[in-house]
Amino acid sequence: MSTQLPESERPDADGESTGTSTAQQGRLERKRAGTAERQAREESETAGEVETVPLEVYRYDPDVEGKRRPRFDTFHVPLEQGMTVLDALIYARDEFDPSLTFRHSCRQAICGSDALFINGEQRLGCQAQIADLDHPVKVEPLPHQAVEKDLVVDMEHFYEQMRSVEPYFQGGASEADAAGEEQLQSRENREKIKMSTRCIWCGACQSSCNIAAGDNKYLGPAAINKAYRFAMDEREGEDVKDHRMNVLEQEHGVWRCQTQFSCTDVCPKDIPLTEHIQELKREAVKDNLRFW
Fold first, then answer.
1. CATH 2.60.120.260: does it fit domain 52-152?
2. CA distance 140 to 150
3. Cis peptide before 272 (omega within 30 of 0)
4. Which of 19-28, 123-132, 133-142, 259-268 has the lowest mean pLDDT?
5. Domain coordinates in residue numbering, the chain
6. Cα–Cα distance, 11 to 15 (Å, whole number)
7. What is the tens place of the pLDDT at every residue in 53-67?
């Protein structure tokens, strides 16, 4: 068996591997190119050649002595076509302050993790276009939630409210389900609940609700909408629906809603939350009517 090295890996005159040297040289060149590009961009910004947008970001860090008092930091971010608030925040974090903290994941308005208070309204950071907003763009954490750090709020209470309505399908009431057969849903019923299934648990509606802000036990529009999605599903039995309605009819359920439409206005998925709550109110009234 030959022990001769391939041509690309033979030592050069200095005794180093040519292949390894070439790879290292390539990495070094790419690093230099990246540094040069960044320096050129910074020089262009300094010279006023690149249009920037001022981003005023809420800052708070309870673990750092000098940052326990809330404040706003301003970052000047290059304005690019199609840039979202989330893009701007990522740029500010990567280029100016790596300690800037916020949640994000899919960047496609599906995960719901980047709900923020942007220019005085609850929005998804990945959905809000910088070009559509007044400048400066002011970014704050969701109101009526405990702030953990910068733009990150504690969502545990919101999740507790969502879990309290048992947000999952409960079968077993029909003969078909008992026999292990497929339970079919009519097109009409699917259309009825379709919009309610679009909820991404972002918490924007809960944050906008004045009732939820003053009543910590109120289920809130997101949880009630999730209950609507299952209560109106024809595949669940009447006993399960009665159980769901009993939960919703309590003191801190649907009757606390004052029909302000704030939740509907800020929902990033355009769910008619207020309409769903009102329909559940009508169902509750019908359940308690007696004709004799």
1. no
2. 8
3. no
4. 19-28
5. 52-152, 155-288
6. 5
7. 999 999 999 999 888
- What residues are paired with 54 via a beta bridge? 76
Can you read off the two tokens belonging to residue 142? 């969701």
DSSP state of 224: H
Rounded Cα–Cα distance for residues 173 and 68 (Å): 54
Please say whether the beta carbons of 207 and 273 come within 8 A: no
- Nearest of 157, 159, 145, 158 to residue 58 by alpha carbon: 145
State the average pLDDT over residues 245-270: 94
pTM: 0.78
Task: Check if the beta carbon of residue 233 is closer than 8 Å to that of residue 241.
Answer: no
* CATH fit for domain 155-288, picks 3.40.50.150, 3.40.50.1460, 3.40.50.300, 1.10.1060.10: 1.10.1060.10
Instruction: Find the helix or strand (DSSP H, E) in which 118 lies.
Output: strand 115-118
Q: What is the DSSP letter of 172?
A: -
- Decide: residue 265, CB within 10 A, 0-12 exposed, 13-18 middle, 19+ buried: middle
| 17, pLDDT greater than 50 | no
- Assign 19 a pLDDT band (cuts: 50, 70, 90): low
Task: Tell me the mean pLDDT in the region 171-195.
Answer: 79
Query: Amino acid letter at 131?
Result: A
Average pLDDT over every residue of 271-281: 96
The contacts of residue 199 (CB under 8 Å, 6+ apart) are 222, 225, 226, 229, 269, 271
In sequence order, what are the beta bridge partners of 147? 153
Q: Give residue 9's pLDDT.
A: 47
